[in-house]
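Throughout our pipeline, every protein is held as a single compact record rather than as scattered files. The record that follows is passed on verbatim for readers who wish to inspect the format.
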Amino acid sequence: MNQSELKFPLVWKGRLIVQADAEGTEDEIARAFACLGLGDGMVGTGSVSSKGSYRSWSVQATVPDLVTLRSLFKILESLPKVKMLI
């Protein structure tokens, strides 16, 4: 990722794909935002996969710099039962 391509602060929007049986995902995402000082972070539930195996979560926050963005990615990807971050 080339920092010159990104203009900070930026509003980042993503989607987290998590196993449907995972509990506390919304709270974990909120804690990640709080840990990084992203007070405007928003979390919304999305759809469940056709087989019911996965649930998507929409996430959004205003990110002040590249270091925080990378930290956010690392934290979200390491949450329990996360399949992928898009």
The chain is about 25% helix and 35% strand. The longest helix spans residues 66-77. Strands lie at 10-19, 42-48, 54-63, 82-85. The helical segments are 25-35, 66-77.
